[in-house]
Automatic annotation (TrEMBL):
Family: Belongs to the class-I aminoacyl-tRNA synthetase family.
Alphabetical list of PANTHER family matching this protein: METHIONINE--TRNA LIGASE, METHIONINE--TRNA LIGASE, CYTOPLASMIC
Pfam families the record matches: tRNA-synt_1g
Protein name as annotated: Methionine--tRNA ligase, cytoplasmic
Gene Ontology MF terms in the entry: ATP binding; methionine-tRNA ligase activity
NCBIfam families assigned: metG
GO cellular component: aminoacyl-tRNA synthetase multienzyme complex; cytosol
Domain Methionyl/Leucyl tRNA synthetase span(s) in chain numbering: 34-311
Organism listed in the record: Rhipidura dahli
Transmembrane segment boundaries: none
Gene (UniProt): Mars
């Protein structure tokens, strides 16, 4: 505060010269390097003020602050484009998923430009870089024994010739008997539902009756990482600036014990799984989408690893 008062009293002439922008922005040895991301907005609708205020605006404010401090700052974001919600919206609008993503990515980019959000790069997750990096991370997990196979029971529509993601199924809620419950949640009683638990299930695409069918999937073996994660958390929670809510949720997950998490889906719209026996599947969006931060940076600069694999700077 004393330093700020002193500079204020001496006027603008006392300020250091502004940083000359570089393209691309890369970490500089001996300087403070700041990488800023904000939650990737989902691409299947027009962004509204809640989207902007919820994540984009706060990140933009911090990016502007960092640049005013003359810190070497990179601010990236982009649209999250894979997943069932995109397929659902594309069917409603009579478009292919790629056409829908192209349309709404442009809308998002225009809206943030109108608000003068100061992204250094605003990208997207449907790129060759996303496929390459996601598949590379998958192969590393596979080689190190952090993946396992198991069978899931899913609803399959024989008329459409496809397994039905949760959003493609409707039926009667097994808890409150609401007749229009979705395959993941009942909008009346609010309870989460496994699609195979629905009574009188119907395919939303053809209104046919799906059948429960076993299918093989790949799981991230989180229990194998639990001990290592707990040790890391003890160090990080002691020195980091975690919110009380983040601490509580994290400890609750560990207290109850981590469970294997399915990372594949029987869909066509997504990053392909590069493994024999699973090549007709794609990665679950919550395995795939966080990797978007890396791939968006990689689309900005071929030297993206200098930001993501460079803890010393």
């Amino acid at each position: 505060i004393a330093a700020a008062v002193d500079i204020w009293a001496r006027g603008p002439a006392a300020l250091p010269p502004p940083r000359q922008p570089r393209t691309p922005v890369l970490p500089v040895e001996g300087e403070r390097n700041v990488l800023i991301t904000s939650a990737l907005p989902y691409v299947n609708n027009v962004p509204h003020l809640g989207n902007i205020i919820g994540c984009v605006l706060s990140a933009d404010t911090f990016a502007r602050y960092c640049r005013l401090r003359n810190w070497n700052t990179l601010f990236v974001c982009g649209t999250d484009e894979y997943g069932t919600a995109t397929e659902t919206r594309a069917l409603e609008e009579g478009l292919s998923p790629q056409e829908l993503c192209d349309r709404y990515h442009a809308v998002h980019a225009d809206v943030y430009a109108w608000f003068r959000i100061s992204f250094d790069h605003f990208g997207r997750t449907t790129t060759p870089q996303q496929t390459r990096i996601a598949q590379d991370i998958f192969q590393r997990l596979l080689a190190r024994g952090f993946l396992l196979q198991d069978t899931l029971e899913q609803l399959r529509c024989e008329s459409c010739g496809r397994y039905l993601a949760d959003r493609f199924v409707e039926g009667t809620c097994p808890f409150c008997s609401y007749a229009e419950a979705r395959g993941d949640q009942c909008d009346k009683c609010g309870k989460l539902i496994n699609a195979v638990e629905l009574k009188n299930p119907q395919c939303k695409l053809c209104r046919g009756t799906p059948v429960v069918t076993p299918t093989q999937h790949l799981f991230l073996d989180l229990p194998k990482l639990e001990g290592r994660l707990e040790a890391w958390l003890e160090r990080t929670l002691a020195t980091g600036d975690w919110t009380a809510n983040a601490r509580h949720i994290t400890r609750t997950w560990l207290r109850d014990g981590l469970k294997p998490r399915c990372i594949t889906r029987d869909l066509t719209w997504g990053t392909p799984v590069p493994l024999d026996g699973f090549r007709d599947k794609v990665f679950y969006v919550w395995f795939d989408a966080p990797i978007g931060y890396l791939s968006i940076t990689a689309n900005y600069t071929e030297q993206w690893e200098r930001w993501w694999k460079n803890p010393e700077q």
